[in-house]
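Sequence, structure tokens quoted for completeness.
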Amino acid sequence: MENISSKNEYRCSHCNKLFFKGVIEKGEIEIKCRGCKNVDTVKINKSDTEDPPEEDLEKI
């Protein structure tokens, strides 16, 4: 089990109220803020968050 401090925080883009803490590897979550009623979408694609392979680092 991961330490809670290593998890990402997801907050409302309008009022900054905390939605949840956690790790999302891939997917899309639509969530409605209980404070201001704003609807936000969190989109995560694991390939966007991974480090490039070592051979790609040499090309950079």
User: Anything to note?
Assistant: The chain has two helices and four strands. The radius of gyration is 15 Å. The first strand starts at residue 8 and ends at 11.
